[in-house]
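Input record, target 12 of the design panel.
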């Protein structure tokens, strides 16, 4: 065989066949076609699906299994620009297998290089040419000969690009199957059609297999081991179950901890940094016109028109239209509405932008800005644009607002963006600077600042500071509503009354204020807090009734109105879990987490992930519980620790305990206890209860089993592991650690994996925190 695409280069029958991840059912169906070819005659199979879904990998595995059965395997790939060569994809597959003594080969000397054909035939051969009739039948004769006696698997990849004569041959084979055990496999994009048997002449002569994206659990098996929980979650989200896209989306090896980003950055904004090789394969597979069109579209982002792309690319419109046609055929872009197009997947735009030439990109962005610069850019317009970005891309908004912190409004909005993107400590500094002049800002900005400042202080466990800020805030009904909501949340998390009022009383006030303002989302938020307060007080019937009222209020909102109140989901689902409405809670948590994570809202994503981990743990699904708990732990540590870290670490400890891993559970519970120490009695009691649970379990373990005691410190690490941990705590990347310790980056990854396993942790941020805690304890 020709060996194109690695077909048939798998195992040769020496061991058990292993299906590609998540493709066992599809592979069994394809293997069934090999058996049917011997009993029922030739088969014509099409494997369709979107780009990167793994069609070629699946066909390659089938080729390996066919070869192990003794079949002849011939594979070819249709290439862009090959339309001028007759039967190009078929010749690519069969050229290594034909010789002059093969029946029918004499008519094909002008086609196959193996038979002496030149680069191009002396006379063009088209579908309507008299020669085409005889060439097609000669090729059918050759295929029948090559199939005897064991069988022939003919794999034609990228068949949607096939030249006209190859298409005519495939149509002929569909209507007149070879009289031999032949399985012809056509691998193609789902945006194009390929010939299959028509009519009812032989309903069993063909199979069409649609290859669907992988489920998250299957796709997760393809991820590299050194990723953090949040990085894993982002890649799974962005790859959308496409294995090839998952491999293409690689973070740089020396990037350190990747900033949490949302899908808006991928689709419209500035995508995250990717490894230099990301997108190179995509670039190589497109014509120059299509690649230039894709690059210009990526600079524009979002929905774009052909006219806009032509202006940014600085080429005639006809070239852009030709490029868009190719990109649509290849499944890279799709038409939407009003003569506009979008990238089929936001992550593909990131790949294209990453692989485009830097110098060209600068000029293209200048042309794109000139297209939209109808009005001069003013500070007011910048602030309004950044405020709009806060809900969908807070990290982007923070970068934009960093240029406008001279004004009170800009400083408040910048601090709010920092909180939403998971940097409360920096936000508190900004709020402290702006607070003496907060009255200079408008009421809406002040109300948002009160809630956000309160959230930042709560995330850090600074209860007294939060109490002073919230009780001192005033000025306007919307500010009052924000203060009441924030005080209810603070009372719940600190376990203390705020200004002599309980969480339930603050929530009731907030519900009244929101009703007076006609703020349905604010009222739903208040009712969610009220339900959580009932649950926290152990009042089952009150919690059940309050949760029903809050759920009704949330469901009555206009579509999308609840999206600005993701905290309402957290409080409501806390109550629903308490009263046993886990299925409804899981549905709301799943929807809310996906939204928060897609929009880069780090604190909310962490809380909602914690809720999902709790629900899955109660359902005894420890695998899903661990995945969500790991995300909650990492986001909590990104947010500075505090109460969210205590709850997340305790939840992860419970997952370890449920899985019988008491040593890891003990270590995480000890870490939670350290975070709980400065938070007060309620939080210390939570950690102590979990440690007692683990102690009970350990007393029932077999002492002969050995193992390290829970809560063991850094002295359990080897000398080299301790060095790696110390450098991680200093913020060094794997590449920097490798250079300092004269190791390879791969060896550093191995040491990190050992550290993670010993302490039952999942991220570099946790390593840094443990090193810091150990240092503080020794002082």
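The sequence produced for target 12 reads:
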């Amino acid at each position: 065989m020709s060996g194109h695409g690695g077909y048939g280069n798998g195992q040769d029958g020496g061991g058990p066949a292993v299906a590609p991840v998540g493709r066992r059912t599809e592979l069994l169906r394809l293997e069934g076609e090999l058996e049917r070819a011997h009993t029922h005659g030739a088969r014509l199979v099409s494997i369709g699906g979107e780009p990167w879904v793994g069609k070629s990998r699946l066909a390659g595995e089938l080729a390996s299994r066919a070869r192990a059965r003794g079949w002849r395997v011939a594979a070819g790939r249709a290439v862009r620009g090959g339309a001028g060569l007759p039967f190009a994809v078929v010749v690519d597959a069969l050229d290594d297998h034909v010789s002059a003594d093969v029946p029918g080969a004499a008519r094909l000397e002008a086609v196959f290089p193996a038979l002496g054909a030149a680069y191009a035939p002396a006379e063009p051969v088209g579908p309507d040419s008299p020669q085409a009739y005889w060439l097609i039948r000669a090729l059918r004769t050759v295929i029948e000969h090559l199939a005897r006696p064991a069988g022939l698997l003919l794999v034609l990849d990228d068949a949607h690009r096939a030249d006209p004569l190859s298409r005519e041959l495939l149509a002929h084979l569909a209507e007149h199957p070879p009289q031999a055990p032949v399985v012809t496999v056509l691998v193609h994009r789902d945006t194009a059609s390929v010939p299959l048997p028509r009519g009812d002449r032989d309903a069993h002569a063909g199979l069409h297999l649609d290859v669907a994206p992988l489920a998250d659990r299957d796709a997760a098996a393809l991820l590299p081991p050194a990723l953090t929980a949040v990085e894993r979650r982002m890649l799974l989200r962005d790859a959308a179950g496409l294995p090839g896209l998952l491999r293409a989306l690689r973070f740089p090896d020396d990037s350190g901890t990747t900033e949490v980003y949302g899908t808006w950055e991928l689709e419209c904004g500035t995508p995250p940094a990717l490894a230099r090789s990301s997108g190179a394969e995509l670039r190589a597979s497109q014509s120059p016109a299509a690649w230039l069109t894709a690059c210009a579209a990526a600079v524009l982002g979002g929905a774009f028109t052909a006219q806009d792309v032509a202006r940014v690319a600085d080429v005639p419109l006809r070239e852009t239209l030709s490029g868009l046609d190719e990109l649509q055929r290849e499944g890279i872009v799709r038409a939407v509405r009003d003569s506009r197009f979008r990238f089929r997947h936001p992550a593909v735009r990131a790949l294209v932008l990453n692989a485009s030439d830097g110098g060209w990109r600068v000029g293209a962005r200048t042309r794109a800005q000139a297209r939209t610069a109808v009005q001069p850019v003013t500070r007011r317009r910048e602030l309004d644009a950044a405020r709009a970005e806060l809900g969908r891309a807070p990290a982007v908004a923070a970068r934009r607002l960093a240029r406008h912190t001279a004004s009170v409004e800009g400083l408040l909005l910048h601090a709010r963006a920092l909180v939403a993107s998971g940097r409360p400590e920096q936000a508190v500094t900004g709020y402290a600077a702006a607070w003496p002049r907060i009255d200079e800002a408008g009421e809406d900005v002040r109300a948002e600042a009160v809630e956000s400042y309160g959230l930042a202080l709560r995330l850090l466990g600074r209860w007294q500071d939060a109490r002073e800020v919230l009780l001192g805030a005033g000025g306007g009904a919307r500010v009052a509503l924000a203060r009441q909501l924030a005080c209810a949340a603070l009372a719940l998390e600190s376990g203390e009354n705020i200004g002599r009022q309980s969480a339930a009383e603050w929530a009731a006030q907030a519900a009244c204020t929101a009703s007076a303002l006609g703020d349905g989302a604010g009222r739903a938020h208040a009712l969610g807090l009220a339900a959580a307060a009932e649950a926290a007080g152990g009042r089952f019937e009150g919690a059940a009734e309050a949760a029903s009222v809050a759920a009704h209020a949330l469901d009555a909102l206009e579509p999308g109105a609840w999206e600005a109140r993701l905290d309402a989901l957290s409080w409501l689902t806390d109550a629903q879990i308490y009263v046993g409405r886990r299925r409804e809670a899981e549905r709301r948590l799943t929807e809310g987490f996906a939204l928060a994570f897609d929009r880069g809202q780090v604190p909310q994503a962490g809380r909602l992930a914690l809720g999902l981990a709790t629900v899955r743990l109660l359902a005894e699904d420890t695998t899903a519980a661990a995945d969500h708990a790991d995300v909650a732990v990492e986001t909590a540590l990104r947010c500075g620790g505090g109460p969210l870290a205590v709850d997340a670490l305790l939840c992860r400890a419970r997952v370890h305990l449920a899985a019988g891993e008491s040593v890891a559970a003990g270590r995480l519970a000890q870490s939670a206890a350290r975070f709980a120490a400065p938070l007060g009695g309620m939080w210390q009691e939570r950690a102590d209860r979990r440690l007692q649970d683990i102690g009970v379990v350990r007393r029932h373990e077999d002492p002969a089993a050995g193992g390290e005691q829970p809560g063991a410190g850094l002295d359990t690490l080897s000398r080299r592991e301790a060095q790696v941990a110390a450098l991680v705590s200093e913020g060094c990347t794997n590449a920097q650690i490798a250079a300092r310790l004269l190791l390879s980056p791969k060896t550093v990854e191995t040491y990190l994996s050992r550290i993670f396993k010993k302490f039952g942790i999942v991220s570099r941020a946790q390593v840094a925190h443990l090193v810091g805690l150990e240092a503080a304890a020794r002082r």
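The first helix runs from residue 24 to 40.
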